[in-house]
Structure to design on (309 residues):
């Protein structure tokens, strides 16, 4: 396999809302909030569902890679329930090798409310369910060893069993890429993420907010200097400023595509990472890989949801 992703196996439930809904429910626009099952059900009871899709950040990237013709796989924990069956079916329909045998778990399959405001921003409310209980027993070492790149998500990292799962996967991987995922994740796990970037990751994906928070700076030039000193490949998306890759001492920039009809920003970072990794694994230049990432992100933000049809 080219790439094996390990991430939260989450079913995305997409709903359109107005800005008042965020205020009334104490939600911060463009971030992700973790809730328990009761909170999740209460929020959902006031919403109209637009669409339900098998999601999760790295899973979205992996599906994008499969659609580009890459041989890819995914590990994510689901329960043997209706949503879990739908999740597995959704991945298999996209030609993703799914390395997980579902069984009845104490918690149900994880779900994420994706709330889209009129400005196309998305705010996420996640009930992790059994996805957040991934353990080292769930890691298929053979699949890890047989993939060229292991791709992880910051959303999945947590103390206890998920951390052991991460460590087991990383220790058996040929090359490791990770997305920092969300500002919330970075601020919650800052010392651990810093250690991962310095000592364990070969490729880091982040947005500008996340990486600046990680190294405690308000000056983007310091991000470039930090990444050069780190001597690894760091890819940063910067909203309407485009994207930048720092590869050891080399810095490459790529502009965004103009005049797009933006409908929903869900999955933009996920598809960007998938597009970049597609170029990277096919031996394209860093510039070409950034352009592929930009192309994929541009396509997904012009539709509802995080999957290209």
């Amino acid at each position: 396999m080219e790439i094996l992703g390990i991430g939260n196996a989450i079913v995305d439930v997409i709903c359109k809302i107005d800005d008042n809904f965020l205020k009334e429910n104490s939600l911060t626009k463009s971030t992700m909030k973790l809730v328990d099952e009761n909170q999740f059900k209460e929020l959902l009871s006031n919403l109209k569902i637009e669409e339900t899709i098998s999601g999760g950040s790295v899973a979205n990237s992996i599906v994008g890679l499969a659609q580009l013709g890459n041989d890819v796989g995914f590990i994510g924990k689901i329960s043997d329930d209706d949503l879990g069956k739908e999740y597995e079916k959704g991945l298999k329909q996209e030609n993703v090798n799914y390395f997980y045998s579902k069984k009845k778990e104490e918690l149900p399959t994880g779900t994420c409310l994706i709330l889209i405001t009129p400005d196309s921003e998305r705010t996420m409310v996640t009930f992790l369910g059994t996805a957040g209980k991934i353990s080292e027993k769930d890691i298929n070492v053979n699949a890890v060893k047989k993939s060229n790149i292991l791709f992880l998500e910051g959303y999945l990292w947590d103390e206890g069993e998920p951390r052991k799962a991460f460590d087991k996967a990383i220790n058996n991987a040929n090359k490791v890429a990770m997305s920092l995922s969300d500002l919330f994740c970075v601020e919650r796990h800052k010392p651990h993420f810093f250690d991962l970037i310095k000592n364990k990751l070969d490729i880091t994906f982040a947005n500008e907010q996340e990486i600046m928070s990680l190294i405690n700076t308000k000056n983007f030039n310091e991000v470039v200097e930090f990444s050069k000193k780190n001597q690894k490949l760091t890819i940063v998306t910067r909203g309407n400023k485009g994207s930048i890759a720092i590869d050891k001492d080399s810095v490459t920039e790529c502009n965004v595509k103009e005049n797009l009809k933006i409908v929903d920003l869900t999955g933009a970072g996920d598809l960007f990472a998938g597009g970049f990794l597609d170029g990277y694994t096919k031996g394209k230049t860093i510039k070409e890989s950034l352009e592929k990432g930009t192309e994929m992100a541009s396509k997904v933000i012009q539709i509802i949801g995080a999957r290209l049809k």
User: Anything to note?
Assistant: Residues 3-300 form a domain with the UDP-N-acetylmuramoyl-L-alanine:D-glutamate ligase fold (CATH 3.40.1190.20). The two ends are 23 Å apart (CA to CA).
